[in-house]
Amino acid sequence: MTDRRIQKTQALLQGALVDLVHERDYDAIPIKQILARANVGRSTFYAHFRDKDELLDSCILAILSSERASKLRRSARGPERLVWFSLPLFEYLEHRHAAEPTAGLPGRAIVHEHLRRALADLIRAETSGSPVPPDLLAEHVASTFVRVLDWWVDHARAKPASEIDALFRMLIMPAVTAVT
Question: Would you identify the CATH topology of the domain 4-50?
Answer without folding.
Answer: Arc Repressor Mutant, subunit A (1.10.10)
